[in-house]
Design brief:
Blueprint (H helix, E strand, L loop, with lengths): L1 E4 L2 E4 H5 L26 H16 L8 E4 L12 H8 L5 E4 L6 H14 L3
Parallel strand pairs: 3-4
Antiparallel strand pairs: 1-2
Length: about 120
């Protein structure tokens, strides 16, 4: 079985034995609690606020972003929500993007996919 990771195709057995220990790290985390006002902030505003908070905590800027793994969470907006939309809102042009599935354990999936992207050299 093969699994697509961005532009590289890797055998599933390869992914099951990836050692990400010491090769990747979570260096910034942010949490955003939206105010209880209808329409504020926007869907993308919340995503941007959380992302910028995590970048700030890590001592990074949007210019340091090489890749984006995106999952639509919460109430979906009345328009498409893809990594390209997020990147456009943030004004960034990463080298690679991926959409993680919605539901289940999306945050763990996001971290796993981002770590594999780093290890794969994206």
């Amino acid at each position: 079985m093969l699994v697509s990771l961005g532009f590289r195709i890797l055998p599933l057995e390869h992914l099951l034995h990836f050692d990400i220990g010491g090769k990747t790290a979570i260096v910034g985390v942010a949490d955003v609690v939206p105010p209880r006002r209808v329409g504020y902030p926007s869907y993308w505003g919340l995503a941007a606020e959380a992302s910028l908070g995590a970048l700030d905590e890590a001592g990074l800027t949007t210019k340091d972003i090489d890749g984006v793994v995106f999952a639509r969470t919460g109430t979906p907006p009345p328009y498409p929500a893809y990594p390209t939309n997020f990147c456009q809102y943030m004004g960034i042009t990463p080298a690679w993007m991926e959409t993680a599935p919605h539901g289940g354990a999306p945050m763990g999936s996001l971290i796993w996919r981002a770590a594999l992207g780093i290890i794969a050299g994206f």
